[in-house]
Fold:
Amino acid sequence: MIGNKTLFVTSLYSKLGDTKFGGRIGRIHHYLGSLKTILNMDQDFVIYTSDIEEKELIESSIDMVKYKDKIRIILYDLNSHPNHEYFQEKLDGFNKMDAHRCYEIMHSKTTWMNNHINENYDFIYWIDCGLSHGGLFPLKYRGGVDTFTNHFKCSLFTPKIVENLNKCTDKITLLSGDQSYHLFDSSANDKFFTDVVKDTKYHIIGGMFGGPKNLVINLINEYQIAFNKMIEFDVLHREEQLLSYLFMKDKDLYNQLIFTTWHHEDSDMAQYNIENEIYFYNVFENLNK
Structure:
């Protein structure tokens, strides 16, 4: 590592589709192409992955020599997650309930961040390695022509993003879907809300979150408490539902990056947008100002 004050933690598992874990099918080119784009933020990265994907990562078009001082690859067997058996029990041995998401990954995000909490960084963020793709960012930021390669490029992933993220020193920054127009997801089980007011206006997105290390420590601790409650209540939720619960619990702790729709103007899903939408990519435009 070269001494950047900011660390991004991510993971790359592309072969989980149609397995007991759950995941999107055939995603290696997506995740590698997106990761190559995200690395343009020019920060230190830790990538959790499998031995198979490590080989593909090393042999990919990502210039590993260029990034050798900024990337650490850590092998992690998803079977070793301490709650793997609980997840599998709830999924009845195969993830049909939420087949494109992996609970071992979702509920490792804060744990993996915590693994680096004692390192010499001032800010720590989680970011999904597949965040850069044409479904979220319009052609004007992807070279103007929607080729396969351009589909995972995006000129908005710049060091300026990090500079602006790090201006928020008193709160955890997170992506927040305003559900006034569209439903992003359901909230956690009602058992969570005996002493917390349920407010479903915003749904917290797990694709990018973090901030100053001292506040990330608190977030990690609070997340673990919420996770333990999930086990106690004998339910299974995605990480976004737990993050949304934590947001409802104390909104003043969080800096929201608000949007109202995933679907930009070039998307075939834009037909469902209404007037005055805040596109997801608008968040990244603002972070570049």
In short: The beta strands are 6-12, 44-49, 71-75, 123-127, 172-178, 202-212, 254-259. The first strand starts at residue 6 and ends at 12. The chain has a mean pLDDT of 93.
